[in-house]
Design a protein that fits this description.
With 250 residues, the protein is of the alpha+beta class. It has one domain (24-249): L-fuculose-1-phosphate Aldolase. It has helices spanning 24-31, 34-52, 109-118, 131-139, 149-154, 169-178, 199-223, 233-249; strands spanning 62-68, 71-74, 90-92, 98-100, 124-128, 159-161, 184-187, 191-196. The two termini are 31 Å apart.
Length: 250
């Protein structure tokens, strides 16, 4: 009989503060280390999932994950997220300057950095264009609250950012400020960005947001103008407490 207690794996990438590589040789060795190679492979896997679900179009979407005090691993520009390889990944600093990688980094890394600089819990971000959720973002609207346990616990209130040119400092500022208190932000006329302490959680939140938007539209059509039932009372209070824990720890 297994004597170990069941546990939930820690999906975060944890680095040693104050020990970022400094020289070009050190950065190159770090960029090619087994731990970073595993993250590169994970990003490729998550990118395929985004593409297979039609959450990204053309070369749209991007991933980032902090791997040091001043280091971020990110996807490159001009590539389908369904066909990336580990060799395509890029390493940048917290100002967006590229430090390693043969392909040019995504221009939208600055938006991710805008969140990461303001919110230490944002160790990873995922930006995508899931069709239904992006429709809400274009309309400048969000689904009603308290519709499903998953959306309340894992997402909560969705931030609403006005349109700013993708990749611009203005977009980084607007989205970055909203990303402090929201784990998911609708980017006006653009798409959705989600954050988490791990790449998986940032990606999962994209799935939860899109599922919420689709379910809300179906529920609204089924009720044909009537009020959609919402979770209330003690259950709603418990979910609010769970959301606070999840948003701070996952």
């Amino acid at each position: 009989m297994n004597s170990e207690q069941p546990s939930t794996p820690d999906l975060q990438y944890n680095w040693a503060p104050g020990e970022d590589p400094k020289t070009a040789k050190e950065i190159d060795a770090f960029f090619r280390s087994p731990e970073i190679e595993r993250l590169k492979e994970l990003i490729c896997d998550l990118g395929r999932r985004l593409w297979q679900k039609e959450y990204v179009d053309g070369n749209g979407g991007n991933f980032t994950v902090r791997v040091g005090d001043n280091l971020i691993l990110c996807t490159p520009t001009m590539i389908s997220k369904g066909f990336m390889t580990p060799e395509d990944m890029c390493l940048v600093d917290m100002e967006g300057e590229q430090l390693a990688g043969v392909r040019k980094r995504t221009s939208e890394v600055l938006t991710h950095i805008g969140i990461m600089k303001r919110q230490p819990a944002a160790k990873a971000c995922c930006h995508a264009h899931p069709p239904t959720a992006t429709g809400f973002a274009i309309a400048g609207a969000a689904p009603d609250r308290l519709l499903t346990p998953e959306s309340e616990v894992f997402v909560g209130e969705i931030g609403m950012a006005e349109f700013r040119m993708p990749g611009s400092p203005e977009c980084s500022d607007v989205v970055g400020r909203l990303g402090v208190d929201h784990v998911a932000v609708f980017m006006g006329n653009h798409g959705v960005i989600t954050r988490g302490k791990s790449l998986e959680m940032a990606y999962w939140r994209q799935e939860v947001v899109e599922a919420l938007c689709r379910s809300y539209l179906v529920a609204r059509d089924v009720k044909t103008g009537g009020k959609i039932p919402q979770i209330s009372g003690e259950s709603a209070e418990k979910m609010a407490r769970s959301h606070k824990y999840v948003s701070e720890n996952l």
